[in-house]
């Protein structure tokens, strides 16, 4: 097998790595807000079953998981070259950008594509991000 694979504490839903270093490049699988205990920040269900989803909190948690995957491979957010961002609804684009722009500042930011998708692997997830980073090995 080529490269070295890394996994976050939360088990993936299939047999794949969250991050994979191949030479000086690090590929990050799509990550979302899901935590190791399977909770989802920004997703609350009250006693009557009313669901409240918060794109801001989910974006923060998703980027934190992205950072954690990068750190496993010896990199950080500043090493990102490209991001693909998936939103369940483009109505969340503004709230997503608000958090994104607070974290990624200046001109030295990764390229980014953001698209709407029909759904993500859990009905309470609003955003997923995958990326590629460049960090010389060693």
Describe it for me?
The structure is a single chain. The chain is an alpha+beta fold. Helix content is 21%, strand content 30%. It has two helices and eight strands; from the N terminus they run E-E-E-E-E-H-E-H-E-E. The chain has helices spanning 55-72, 93-103; strands spanning 4-6, 19-22, 25-31, 43-45, 51-53, 80-87, 111-116, 127-134. The strands form two sheets. Strands 1-2-3-8-6-7 form a six-stranded mixed β-sheet, covered by helices on one side. Strands 4-5 form a two-stranded antiparallel ribbon. A hairpin with a 5-residue loop joins strand 4 and strand 5. Helix 1 crosses helix 2 (93-103).
What is the topological layout?
Blueprint (H helix, E strand, L loop, with lengths): L3 E3 L12 E4 L2 E7 L11 E3 L5 E3 L1 H18 L7 E8 L5 H11 L7 E6 L10 E8 L4
Parallel strand pairs: 6-7
Antiparallel strand pairs: 1-2, 2-3, 3-8, 4-5, 6-8
Tags for this entry?
2 helices; 138 residues; alpha+beta; globular; 6-stranded mixed sheet
Short characterization:
With 138 residues, the protein is α+β, with helices and mostly antiparallel strands. Helices cover 21% and strands 30% of the residues. It is globular and about 50 Å long.
């Amino acid at each position: 097998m080529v490269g070295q694979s890394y996994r976050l504490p939360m088990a993936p839903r299939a047999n794949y790595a969250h991050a994979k270093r191949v030479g000086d490049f690090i590929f990050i699988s799509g990550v979302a807000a899901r935590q190791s205990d399977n909770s989802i920040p920004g997703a609350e269900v009250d006693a009557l079953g009313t669901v409240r989803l918060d794109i801001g909190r989910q974006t923060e948690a998703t980027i934190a998981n992205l950072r954690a995957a990068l750190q496993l491979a010896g990199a950080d957010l500043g090493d990102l070259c490209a991001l693909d961002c998936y939103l369940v609804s483009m109505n969340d684009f503004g709230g997503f950008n608000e958090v994104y722009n607070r974290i990624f500042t200046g001109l030295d930011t990764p390229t980014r594509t953001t698209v709407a998708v029909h759904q993500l692997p859990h009905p309470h997830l609003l955003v997923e991000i995958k990326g590629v980073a460049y960090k010389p090995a060693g």
